[in-house]
Task: structure prediction
Amino acid sequence: MSTKLISENKAFGGYHRRYSHSSKVLNCAMTFAVFIPGNTTEANAYPALYWLSGLTCTDENFMQKSGAMNVAQQLGIILIAADTSPRGENIPDDPEKAYDFGLGAGFYVNATQDPWQQNYQMYDYIVHELPKVIAELNLPIQANKVSIAGHSMGGHGALVIAMRNSKKYKSVSAFSPICNPCASAWGKKAFTNYLGNNTDTWKQYDTCELIANNLAAKLPVLIDQGDKDEFFPKQLNTETLNEIAQANNYPLTINMHSGYDHSYYFIASFIKQHLQFHWQFLQ
Result:
C-alpha cells in the first residue's frame, strides 16, 4: 500500500503532515492529515485521536481552524484527520451539485446502491483501511489507545463507529452531531441514495436507533451543542438523542452552550475540553 507524504509543517513544537494513498476500499486516491507532538515528557509513543469532519469539509478544516494541535502538543496526543468522502473526477457526485450529498458528504456509511457502492464505503475506510495505512507509516502511536471524535456529519460518524466498535476506541466525542439521521432531511437524502429505500438498513448508521435497540456499546461519550446552531434542532435532533439515552439508561453527557453556532468558532472554543476528556481514557 503506497502512501506519499504531501507536505510537512512544524506547528506548536510538533509536526503536521499530509499524506495521500491509493484506497482499495474507496477505489480512488485519498488524503489524510496527522499531527505528531514534538518534544514532550511522553516516551516514544502516543495515544491517538481520529477526527471526522462534516459536510463539505476535507482533512484540512479541523487542523487549520480548531486549535487542536496546540492542545494535542501539550497533552501528547497524535491527531488523525480523515477526508469526508472519496474524491476524483470519476467519483459519482450529486447530479445537482448539492453540498449535502456526494463529494464531501460520504456520511461514513457503506453504500449498497449504484452508482455509489463502488466508491462510497466510508465506514469500512475509517474503521478498517485507514488504521492499516497509518500502522504502515510506523508512527509513534500506541495502537491500543485510540479514541474518535467529529463534527456534524462527522459527529454522527464518530458516534456510530465508536458504538459499533467499542473494542477499537476508548472514548468518543462530538460537536453538533447529526444524532438521528433517519429522521433528518440530510440523513434521509443520503441514506436513500446510498442505502436504498429499506429504512431498516438505515438504522445501523443512526445513533438513536443503536441506543434504542440496545445495539450501542457503552463507552465514554461527550457531546457539545450550541443553541444558536442554524441546524438545531431539526437536522441534528440532539433532544431526541437525550430522550432515548435517558429512556434506555445509556450514559452520555450532552452540554448545551448559549449563543454558539455550527461553525469552527464553536469547535475552537471547546476543543481543549474535548481533548482533555479523551486524555483521561487514553492513559
Observations:
- The first helix runs from residue 60 to 65.
- The chain has a mean pLDDT of 97.
- The chain has one domain: 3-281.
